[in-house]
Amino acid sequence: MRAGRVSHPGTTGHQPVAPSAVAARGAYVFTPTGPQLAPTPRALSTGEVESFAAAARGAVEAGFDGVELHGANGYLIAQFLSGNANLRTDRYGGSVAGRIRFAVEAVAATIDAIGADRVGLRLSPGAGIWDAIDADIPELSGTLLAELIALGPAYVHLAGTDEQVLLGLRRGWPGALIINPSTPSNPVPVDPGRRERWLAHGADLISFGRAYLANPDLVERFRTDLPLTVADPNTYYTGGDDGYLTYPDTLVSAR
């Protein structure tokens, strides 16, 4: 994951990078001293896509089975896809073909580094998170997936977008597809009916994120139909154990 402009010098010691020198409007990012207004980033040079490959090699050397490139939620890859964050006039901006180029090259470089069977890509078409607003959503996402077919990544992971868009992308993507059916208005996809509906629509797997924060025994809770705890966003990125190690594990408690 490269956060791109959703970062701060107070966290990294460096000016954030992005497709263009455009700050995320009204966005406060997490820093060690608390939320700070997102600064103006510098425009990324075209040669820096290799950093994804270097990170992937490091992950595999450390023992990971593979990597998922985070192209969703308004982070760096999503910023290149965005019509308002990406104002470039070179081959990485403007047209649909230009705006998807960075994502395709990041996936290609990572696959060259560690192999296609170890690489996935997460996308959130139209989610609009962190002021990364997409334009031409079905065309942009469909064209991106069509370019990825030849590269053969292990899977594509879609989240936080309109159901009709997801259905269209499922029809256009022949490979493995992971769906996270959360949306900004319904962020926790724990309803069994929603999960089963997406499996019926052709999803190969359903993913969970925030539900795991508040339920360390999530798989067992699903298996035994136990109630779920809802994660408290007020504890996100605040430091310390609260909100990370303090949610109850009912199975441990019962023992």
Automatic annotation (TrEMBL):
InterPro entries hit by this protein: Aldolase_TIM (IPR013785), OxRdtase_FMN_N (IPR001155), Oye-like (IPR045247)
Pfam families: Oxidored_FMN
Transmembrane segments: none
Gene3D superfamilies (alphabetical): Aldolase class I
Domain NADH:flavin oxidoreductase/NADH oxidase N-terminal per the UniProt entry, residue ranges: 41-135
Domain of life of the native organism: Bacteria
PANTHER family: NADH OXIDOREDUCTASE-RELATED (PTHR22893), NADPH DEHYDROGENASE 2-RELATED (PTHR22893:SF91)
Protein name, as recorded: Alkene reductase
Upper lineage: Bacteria, Bacillati, Actinomycetota, Actinomycetes, Streptosporangiales
